[in-house]
User: Fold this.
Amino acid sequence: MTFESDFLQPIISGGSVPDETTLEMMRLSLFDWAACGRAGADEPVSRIVRAMILAEGGRGECALFGGGAAPMRGAALVNGTVSHALDYDDTHFAHIGHPSVAVCSAALAVGQSVGASFDDILMAALIGAEVSVRVGVWLGRAHYQTGFHQTATAGCFGAAAAAARLLGCDADQSGHAIGLAATRASGLKAQFGTMGKPYNAGIAASNGVEVALLARAGFQARTDALSCALGFGETHAGVATQVPGGWLFPDISHKFHACCHGLHAMLEALGHIRVDPDNVEKVEIFTHSRWLTVCNQPAPSTGLGAKFSYRMTAAMCLAGVSTAALDSYSDATCADPRLTALREKVTVIADDTLAETAARVKVTAGGKIQLGEHDLSTPIPMDKRADKLRAKAAAMLGDRAAESLWQAVRQGDTAALLTV
Assistant:
């Protein structure tokens, strides 16, 4: 089997072997994914999708965040949706997407169903996440700017790769799974700020499992459907960007604020500024223009909408409202007169001299100007990253549950990932 594009073949075939640092980054992302899934299990979107799948019945061998079990596709749909419900999961800026929610959800569902070991699930998740990132890079920024949600579109290909590996698909079957994913991949940025955004991640996970199951059963598709004429790339604004060699996944960025990752560089920059919020006269946020169609809702009225608002989260940060706390993002926060007044003093300015991972801020208060800047691409030492992720999990789940989850990942206890 010759894959349509050599940027996928070494990863899917297992020809590229990850080093321990790359594997450790996947362990941290798996831990973070599970923490987000547990914490998001009672969100409205989570309850709705889980109830739908449980009502369908069927032999349920795969555990669900929030309780219950379901067959592979249903479990992938639920867990993909639930783990993205809080929008607190990892992001890869090479393609502006959340790899783990689709890929880990597919890998855990298939892994539980076939009785795979933790190490096999971890490797499948890493391969799937890498495929997701590479497809996203290959599609290019035009795909995202046109309105496609990379978490769902590129994520479907990654979920398919992870599922195919755990199902024991050979090279031909894996190629057909990737080709068939080109027909199933979908998801729109128009859903941002609604329940549709986390559902996009669930769709990608479920679709990835589905195409891998079909391919293993002998279902055939165009194996070049990603890049052929009238294929996914051509019809979804793909530009066939050159994909660099080596593993891309280790550049993953983890969230330490409970909102869209496009806001994090700004929040880190504002975090170093100390002002009396009542004395603020003007706040200027400089960011790359690509984010203006993603997280620039000017006056959100819901907590979910606030997660996609420069102005609202800037006001929260300056007023001392924790942007890391889940309960900060509420309808009441958006209606708080003090915060809305501060929000109206915030202006968002496009500056394409900045990297997509960077932001600058300028705060005028009491006649004085304070400046700040931050770039999310600045490396975080692995031990410090682990400490920050453990603290984040403890804040979401409580100390005991977070420690139990940490030990589950360190000890390779797959069954303990989704349930306390």
Notes: The mean pLDDT is 94. The first strand starts at residue 62 and ends at 63.
